[in-house]
Amino acid sequence: MSAQWKWRREAGAGWAIAAICAIGRYGGRALARAVLYPSTLYFMWRRPEERRDSRDYLSRVHGRPATAGEVFRHIHTFSQTVLDRLFLLGEDMRRFDVRTHGLDELHRHLECGRGVLLFGSHLGSFEVLRVLSRQRPDVPIRVVLDRAHSVSVTALLEQINPEIAATVIDAGQDGPAIMLAIQEAAAQGAMIALLVDRTQPGEPSVSVPFLGAPARFPVAPWLIASVLKIPVVLAFGLYRGGNRYDLLFEPFSDGIQVARRERAAALPALIARYAARLEDRVRDAPYNWFNFYDFWERGDDGVDPSANEAGTARAVDPPQGGVGGDRAVRAAAVLGPGTAGD
Known about the structure:
Blueprint: H1 14-27, H2 29-46, H3 48-62, H4 68-89, E1 97-101, H5 103-110, E2 116-120, H6 132-135, E3 141-145, H7 151-160, H8 162-165, E4 168-170, H9 175-187, E5 191-195, E6 205-210, E7 213-218, H10 220-228, E8 232-241, E9 244-253, H11 263-284, H12 309-313, H13 326-330
Parallel strand pairs: 1-9, 2-5, 2-8, 3-4, 3-5
Antiparallel strand pairs: 6-7, 8-9
């Protein structure tokens, strides 16, 4: 179930997204935010799949059935962060109160000049990372994303800032080309940002506990980290309401050293540790979770494994399809500019 986001149609017509962004650019953020209320209601009406998935997720994280008001808040929070991309990618930071945590550790890794892998997720806003370009203008940021997913949003945001668009590593390329681009960025001492919480159809993944039930996470980002052996830092850009964001960095590894013959056992353990950290952040900011699809595994009968003791106790499965090869590297395209189903 965890790769079904790939087949979800893009959230919202391109003209609607363009219209809201135009209101933001010419009428201001406050006016555009007001428009988000009726657009969120329209979205809830037209997209029953995402409405259902939001309710399922919120019920899981709250430990009780979610209300319609909570689902509205969840989708509205998502739409607010999408709107803010307009300003964040335009590098207009003056209107935002971005509080950063963990910068000292990140800077320590950057001073080594080997590059840093920034592992993010569809939790909050990844674009708020652009504040780093002001903190460390000497260090380039390269973002790995699939340009083919959410085409209308990608095209519009790339129009806003062509310079940022030029720094993107397109995850739609073949595996060797992606890996070569990432290696070149690391050699330049860059920060290389990837979203590591979504699996690609047919790509290697492992099942680990997450919010009380097994969920699949991709292997490829961790395989890349084990090949590059450069520091891995977890990055979270949590939206706190209004104009406030918390940008948090957590050191995860000074360099993942795993022999090829040990990867099948070592990488699932790393992913399980990452999932535990992600779960802590999700519980801290539950309405920031923007994976609007059925994230958790279900058995062949469609039943959530968390409904029985055996499913809950399940830990780490071996990677599907093995670990390694171009297919695993292509699975690093865990990203997307982020639209619902995003």
